[in-house]
Amino acid sequence: MAGNRAVAYMGPRKVEIHNLDYPKLVDPRGKKCEHGVILKLLVTNICGSDQHIYRGRFPAPSGMILGHEKYRRGRRSRPRCGIYQER
């Protein structure tokens, strides 16, 4: 069964599949957010700019997650009761 996986750029013409933790609804300091959205991504793919990175034509850090063309399903935050409800 698929989990939370992503394609990571490791160097020119080298990528790896990484298993990532699921996101949490917190701010950059780790404090719980009262308002926010977590999206459930169903499919993503790399685009032309990612292909330039993959081929080494554009500099990028090792470990950078590729793919920003996404098909998603929204999840709503219910801060008063602490429940996430899928739409």
Q: How would you describe what is shown here?
A:
By secondary structure, the chain is mostly beta strands. 8% of the residues lie in helices and 44% in strands. The strands form 2 sheets. Strands 2-1-4 form a 3-stranded antiparallel β-sheet, with no helix packed on it. Strands 3-5-6 form a 3-stranded antiparallel β-sheet, with no helix packed on it. Strand 1 (5-11) and strand 2 form a beta hairpin.
Q: What can be said about this structure in brief?
A:
By secondary structure, the chain is mainly β. The protein contains one helix and six strands; from the N terminus they run βββαβββ.
What labels would you give this structure?
mainly beta, 3-stranded antiparallel beta sheet, 87 residues, single chain, 8% helix
Task: Produce the secondary structure layout.
Layout lengths: L4 E7 L2 E6 L17 E9 L2 H7 L9 E2 L3 E10 L4 E4 L1
Antiparallel strand pairs: 1-2, 1-4, 3-5, 5-6
**Are there runs of 5+ residues with pLDDT below 50, and where?**
none
Which class of secondary structure composition applies to the elements?
Answer: mainly beta
Number of strands: 6
Question: How far is the N terminus from the C terminus?
Answer: 22 Å
Order of helices and strands: EEEHEEE
State Rg: 16 Å
Compute the average pLDDT. Answer: 80
Task: Describe the main β-sheet briefly.
Answer: 3 strands, antiparallel
The overall number of domains is: 1
* Anisotropy-based shape: elongated
The order of strands across the largest sheet is 2-1-4
Helix segment tally: 1
- Helical coverage, percent range: under 10%
The percentage of residues in β strands lies in 35-45%
